C-alpha cells in the first residue's frame, strides 16, 4: 500500500499532469469505487464542466480541488492514475475515465478494486469521513512531541499498531513504521504507553525524518511502486529493516528478525532496538 511519501509523489506528478484541465466526460466501469454520492449519475453530473485547480494530499488521500467540489481519492493497495490519449489501449483493470476538454484522459486503474472516491462540495470535505477521522499530518505544527506522547500514553496497544492507526498520526504504513522504530531504537512489540520520555522524543523526531527523507527521494519502490509518470522511487536502497529479513543490520551486523505484530509482517534488529 502506498504510504505518505508515495502518495505525495503521486500528488506532485498528478498536479503537473492535470492542473487547469476541464472535465468533459466521465466513464465508470466499476461503480463501487465511487463511495459518495451513492448515485454515480450524480457524481458524473457534478464533475462534468469542472476544472481541476489543484491536487492536495491529506494523509494517504489525494484531494482534487475543482471549482465547486473536492474529489477525495484513496489508492489503497494497487490504485494508479495515468494520463493518456483517448485512443491508447487500456485493460479490464481500468475502471474510471475522466476525459478532458483538451482531448487527454485521466484513467484510474486498480487491479484489486480496493480504492475509493468520495465527492464533496468544496469546504465540506474535512467535516465528514473519511477525512474527518484522520489525525494530524506528521509535518504539521499540530504534530508535536507532547501530542504524540499524550496519544501514545492513552493506549495499551503495541507501539507498531498504534503508529499504523491513522487517527494518531497520518501517513505511516508498514514500511515507514518499521523504519521509524528502527531509527528510534524501539522494538515494535513494546506497549505504546510504556516508552520512556526520551523514547517518545526520539520516535517523534524519527517519524518526521524518515518520512521527509522518503518524500525527498520520491517514495519507495517496494511492491514495484511506480508513480504516474512511470518514474520509480529510489528510497528502497535506503531502507534499514523493512523487507531485509535474514540480512545483516546496517548499523551493527546482527541478522535482522521478522515477526508479526498486529497481523502485520514486522522487521527489526534485536540488538539495536530495545
Ligand atoms: Zn542492529
Q: What topology does this entry show?
A:
Elements lengths: L3 H15 L4 E6 L5 E3 L3 H8 L6 E5 L2 E5 L3 E6 L5 E5 L9 E7 L4 E5 L6 E6 L23 H9 L5 H6 L9 H11 L12 H20 L40 E5 L2 E5 L6
Helix pairs in contact: 1-6, 5-6
The structure holds zinc ion (ZN).
The site of zinc ion (ZN) has 7 residues, from loops.
Question: Could you tell me how far the N terminus lies from the C terminus, measured between alpha carbons in angstroms?
Answer: 28 Å
**Measured on Cα atoms, how large is the radius of gyration?**
20 Å
Mean pLDDT: 92
Q: Can you tell me the CATH class of the largest domain?
A: Alpha Beta
Write down the domain tally. 2
Protein model, in words:
Strand 7 (94-100) and strand 8 form a beta hairpin. The chain has helices at residues 4-18, 40-47, 145-153, 159-164, 174-184, 197-216; strands at 23-28, 34-36, 54-58, 61-65, 69-74, 80-84, 94-100, 105-109, 116-121, 257-261, 264-268. The strands form 3 sheets. A 5-stranded mixed sheet has the order 2-9-5-4-3, covered by helices on one side. A 4-stranded antiparallel sheet has the order 1-7-8-6, with helices on one face. The protein folds into 2 domains: 4-133, MutM-like, N-terminal (N-terminal domain of MutM-like DNA repair proteins, Alpha-Beta Barrel), CATH 3.20.190.10; 145-268, Helicase, Ruva Protein, domain 3 (Orthogonal Bundle). It is elongated, with a radius of gyration of 20 Å. It has 274 residues and is an alpha+beta fold. The two termini are 28 Å apart. Bound molecules: zinc ion.
Amino acid at each position: 500500500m502506498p504510504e505518505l511519501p508515495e502518495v505525495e509523489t503521486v500528488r506532485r506528478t498528478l498536479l503537473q499532469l492535470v492542473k487547469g484541465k476541464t472535465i468533459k466526460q466521465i466513464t465508470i466501469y466499476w461503480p463501487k469505487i465511487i463511495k459518495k454520492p451513492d448515485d454515480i449519475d450524480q457524481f458524473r453530473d457534478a464533475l462534468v464542466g469542472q476544472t481541476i485547480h489543484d491536487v492536495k494530499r491529506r494523509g494517504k488521500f489525494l484531494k482534487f480541488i475543482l471549482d465547486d467540489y473536492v474529489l477525495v481519492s484513496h489508492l489503497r493497495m494497487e490504485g494508479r492514475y495515468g494520463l493518456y490519449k483517448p485512443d491508447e489501449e487500456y485493460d479490464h483493470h481500468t475502471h474510471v475515465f475522466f476525459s478532458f476538454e483538451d482531448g487527454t484522459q485521466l484513467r484510474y486503474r486498480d487491479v484489486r478494486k480496493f480504492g475509493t472516491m468520495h465527492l464533496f462540495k468544496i469546504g465540506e470535505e474535512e467535516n465528514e469521513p473519511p477525512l474527518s477521522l484522520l489525525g494530524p499530518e506528521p509535518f504539521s505544527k499540530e504534530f508535536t512531541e507532547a501530542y504524540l506522547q499524550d496519544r501514545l500514553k492513552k493506549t495499551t496497544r503495541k507501539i507498531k499498531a498504534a503508529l499504523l492507526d491513522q487517527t494518531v498520526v497520518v501517513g505511516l504504513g508498514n514500511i515507514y513504521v518499521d523504519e521509524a522504530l528502527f531509527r528510534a531504537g524501539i522494538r515494535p512489540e513494546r506497549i505504546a504507553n510504556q516508552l520512556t520520555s526520551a523514547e517518545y522524543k526520539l520516535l517523534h523526531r524519527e517519524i518526521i525524518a524518515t518520512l521527509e527523507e522518503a518524500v525527498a527521494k520520491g517514495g519507495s519502490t517496494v511492491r514495484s511502486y511506480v508513480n504516474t509518470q512511470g518514474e520509480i522511487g529510489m528510497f528502497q536502497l535506503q531502507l534499514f529493516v523493512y523487507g531485509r529479513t535474514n540480512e545483516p543490520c546496517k548499523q551493527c551486523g546482527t541478522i535482522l528478525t521478522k515477526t508479526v505484530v498486529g497481523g502485520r509482517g514486522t522487521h527489526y534488529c534485536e540488538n539495536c532496538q530495545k
